[in-house]
C-alpha cells in the first residue's frame, strides 16, 4: 500500500490514513500500529508526518499532551468547585437548621417562663403575698 507513494508528495502519501510520511527520507511507510509511536528505525519523530503534513509527530505529541493536560486540569478544577459549592450549601443548610431550632427553643422557653409567672402569681394571690402595684401608697385615716 503505502510504499507506492515513496518519493512523491506528503499530501499524496497521507491521503491514506494508514500511511506515515518521513520528510527526511521522503518515504511513505505503513504506520506501525503495534507501537504507539513510530520507532526511530522507521523515521525520526521530528521528520514523521501523520494525518497532516504541516505538523511533525513531535509537535503533534506535545500539542496533544498540552490539550489533554488542560482538559484534565479543567475537569479537576470543576470537580473541586462543585464539591466546595455542595459543601457550602450543606453548611448553610445546617446553619439554617440550627438557627431555626434555637428560635424554637427560645419561643418554648418564653412560653414556659410566662406559664411559671402566671402560676407563681396565682400562688402569691392565694396566700396573700401578691405585691401591690404601688407598695408605697399612703395609708388613709378613715
Automatic annotation (TrEMBL):
Keywords: Glycoprotein, Membrane, Signal, Transmembrane, Transmembrane helix. The chain crosses the membrane at residues 59-83. InterPro entries: PSI, PTTG1IP. The keyword Transmembrane applies. Its main location: membrane. Signal peptide: none annotated. Residues 87-118 are annotated as: Disordered. GO terms for cellular component: cytoplasm; membrane; nucleus. Residues 1-54 form the PSI domain. Residues 91-118 have a biased composition (Basic and acidic residues). This is Pituitary tumor-transforming gene 1 protein-interacting protein.
